[in-house]
Amino acid sequence: MSNDHLTTDPHPEPQLITLSAGRFMMGSRGAEPQRDPDEHWHEVCVPLAFALGRYPVTFAEYDVFCRTTDRRPILDMGWGRGQRPVINVSWYDAMAYCQWLSEVTGYAYRLPSEAEWEYACRAGTTTAYSCGETINEQRAVFQPAWYQLLQRFKVTKTQPVGQYPANPWGFHDMHGNVWEWTGSAYNAHYAGQELNVLPIDADAKTARVLRGGGWINDSGWLRSAQREHKLPSYFGSHIGFRVARSLPDQL
Description:
Number of strands: 11
Helix content: 10-25%
Structural class: alpha+beta
Radius of gyration: 17 Å
């Protein structure tokens, strides 16, 4: 795996890690605690090399997009902006950011497919998390299961990206902090959609997949195989994204 640090000014690009094509086991085994029925364990081939953001997109990055395109700034819940992951973004917002970034840089930015996301998250592992079968508060932002609901909302919020250890391939915040939009349509049985990235004008009534879990969830929702799905217009204080980039020889 090679690192691709891109800092073109005045439109700084996200730090990327380039991943080779490869095969991996996607989903979860039947014995994995908190496993859901839609996590079918199956081998997947990621057919092309691609690059993926080392971190989720931050407010600092997204605010440049808003200023440049005269979009209304996204609400930060009073938690702060800067290097915190951008939140309250719909799938359409994430796709629009990718389109804008492509236009200003000349590179082909997009959302990752669901398969690409899990491939990067697992980083060669087959355990519940990229760090092993369990995860703790020293490795991710999430809700300890013993908190009462009211306490959760008082004590937990997003944290600046990169504050927790990276996975074996160098990606930060793949578990927790914010859920991340992928470009793929949701299918409960996996029927090939996990390999595809929808166009921005795809059916608005088809749910899109989110991955990674967020500050609002307990640890079970942070598992590498855990899936969430929402309509593309959905947004919330626990929703963000990271970008992927197709490589030049694929264009």
